[in-house]
Amino acid sequence: MGAYYDEIEIEDMAWDEEKRVYHYPCPCGDRFEISRKQLANYEDIATCPSCSLIIRVVYDPLDFEDEPPDDEDSGKGEEETGEEEDDSDEDHFEDALEKLTIEDEPPQVVAVAA
């Protein structure tokens, strides 16, 4: 990865229970964010959603090894998460080529005004 804006220890970051992320102030006015799931997957890059800056989070991955996935520990009722869990499964892979269809019709030309 390229250059980091800074290296921040996890202890210096704050936990946001509502968004379920650790955060740290960004110079742009927003905040860098990283989830427990990312930390458990040995990801140490926190990103700012408003600008291109990134920070490296210094932490012990073993501290997050037994963390439950964020979606299971979010406090939502089973009715709300039942369908969303299937949609948000990162292990699910869908090959776009399986859904690709090729038609015998020639492509249509669309005029665009400049």
UniProtKB/TrEMBL annotation:
It holds the Pfam family Zn_ribbon_CSL. The keyword Metal-binding applies. Signal peptide: none annotated. The keyword tRNA processing does not apply. Residues 4-60 form the DPH-type MB domain. It catalyses: 2 [3Fe-4S](0)-[protein] + 2 Fe(2+)-[Dph3] + NADH = 2 [4Fe-4S](1+)-[protein] + 2 [Dph3] + NAD(+) + H(+); [3Fe-4S](1+)-[protein] + Fe(2+)-[Dph3] = [3Fe-4S](0)-[protein] + Fe(3+)-[Dph3]. One of its GO terms (biological process) is protein histidyl modification to diphthamide. Pathway: Protein modification; peptidyl-diphthamide biosynthesis. Coiled coil: none annotated. One of its GO terms (molecular function) is metal ion binding. Residues 62-114 are annotated as: Disordered. Keywords: Iron, Metal-binding. Residues 62-73, 80-93 have a biased composition (Acidic residues). PANTHER family: DIPHTHAMIDE BIOSYNTHESIS PROTEIN 3, DPH3 HOMOLOG-RELATED. Belongs to the DPH3 family. Component of the 2-(3-amino-3-carboxypropyl)histidine synthase complex composed of DPH1, DPH2, DPH3 and a NADH-dependent reductase, predominantly CBR1. This is Diphthamide biosynthesis protein 3. It comes from Gymnopilus junonius.
